[in-house]
TrEMBL record:
This is Beta-ketoacyl-[acyl-carrier-protein] synthase III. The gene is fabH. Pathway: Lipid metabolism; fatty acid biosynthesis. It comes from Sphingomonas aerophila. Residues 250-254 are annotated as: ACP-binding. It is an enzyme of class 2 (transferase).
Length: 322
């Protein structure tokens, strides 16, 4: 049986880091309000020359180095983003060109904040067929470019960045073998109006700005995330007690706390980076995973749950033995 194993992680952030206090100089908000409601203290914002594609490429290079691989080893690039460099072609193909990975399949996946979970399931399925052997799975975003900087209810919540993993198909017969054990995705298109961008090539011909009814999104997030985590653990034949680490989408510290509480998970098993990165949409899960791998928390053999929810709504979880 082939299993998809993470052999390296990487991440990249724009050079410019912006504190809540700096934001409050331009937006009618305060450090106190943002920290209390969201847990966010800093976000990185892309500057000139920094794009979803360049951040994704930097994260991919770091993941390749950690995996001991070179671009030519890669035969699949799946990139999750809602903020591509161009309407087309896919940003994944730009990353492919920038890496110099000449012989591989590269495409984007769009599921907003859940995008990385969707990309993981797509890559996992393609690797398990044996047709593809080594994938780069990337989440990368520059949400700062679709924020309405006059809307304090949304612009304080997001940041830019990228995270990447190298995912390799490996033969694994062993019961305790490493790899992705279960994935589960959901979508419900009825909730478009709660979280969306008010533009697009086929409607307004503009890029548009992010719009959100935050309070309603919050309510759905906790319910959907705890349900899909329980569901994916069940598919893997595991229970909440077996989990070493949860690496959640970093939207809001209160969503992370409420979801962990609902599952009976100790808060110290939840990797939190929302304080320093804010919500980086599809980048947030691989960014947080890279932080926890590099600081030594997530170790080979650990049971790790990845989870996310975002616009659509879309939501999903993956269970893996790291
Ligand atoms: N600074 C200061 N005051 C603000 C700000 C701000 N940045 N934004 C809103 N306020 C004010 C509002 O105007 C309102 O004032 P009023 O009572 O005088 O009308 C007050 O704060 C309360 O506003 P609410 O929107 O009710 O605040 P709430 O407690 O719901 O927190 C928040 C808002 C943080 C957006 C919360 O609803 C949330 O986190 N929702 C989840 C949204 C999310 O994370 N989405 C990301 C994508 S989906 C996902 O990733 C899961």
């Amino acid at each position: 049986m082939i299993r998809a194993v993470i052999t390296g992680t990487g991440s990249a952030l724009p050079a410019r880091r912006v504190s809540n206090a700096e934001l409050a100089e331009q937006v009618d908000t305060s450090d106190e309000w943002i920290v209390e409601r969201t847990g966010i203290r800093f976000r990185h914002l892309a500057g000139e020359g920094e794009t979803t594609g360049t951040l994704a490429t930097d994260a991919a290079r770091a993941a390749l180095e950690a995996a001991g691989r070179v671009p030519d080893d890669i035969d699949l690039i799946v990139l999750a983003t809602a903020t591509p460099d161009q309407t087309f072609p896919a940003t994944a193909t730009k990353v492919q060109a920038m890496l110099g990975a000449t012989d591989c399949v590269a495409f984007d996946v769009a599921a907003v904040c859940s995008g990385f979970l969707y990309a993981v399931q797509v890559a996992d399925s393609m690797l398990r067929t044996g047709v593809h052997r080594r994938a780069l799975v990337i989440g990368a975003e520059t949400f700062s470019r679709i924020l309405d900087w006059n809307d304090r209810t949304t612009c304080v919540l997001f940041g830019d960045g990228a995270g990447a993993i190298v995912l390799e198909g490996q033969e694994s017969e062993a019961e305790g073998g490493r790899g992705i054990l279960a994935t589960r995705l959901h979508s419900d298109g009825r909730y478009n109006d709660l979280l969306y961008v008010d533009g697009g090539p086929s409607t307004t011909g503009t890029v548009g700005k992010l719009r959100m009814k935050g309070r309603e999104v919050f309510r759905h997030a906790v319910t959907n995330l705890s349900a899909v985590m329980t569901e994916s653990l069940g598919i893997a034949g595991l229970a909440a007690d077996d989990v070493d680490w949860v690496v959640p989408h970093q939207a809001n510290a209160r969503i992370l706390d409420a979801t962990a509480r609902k599952l009976g998970l100790a808060p110290d098993k939840v990797v939190v980076t929302v304080d320093r990165h804010a919500n980086t949409s599809a980048a947030s899960v691989p960014l947080a995973l890279d932080v926890a791998v590099r600081d030594g928390r997530v170790k080979p053999g650990d049971i790790v749950v990845l989870e996310a929810m975002g616009g659509g709504f879309t939501w999903g979880a993956a269970v893996l033995r790291y």
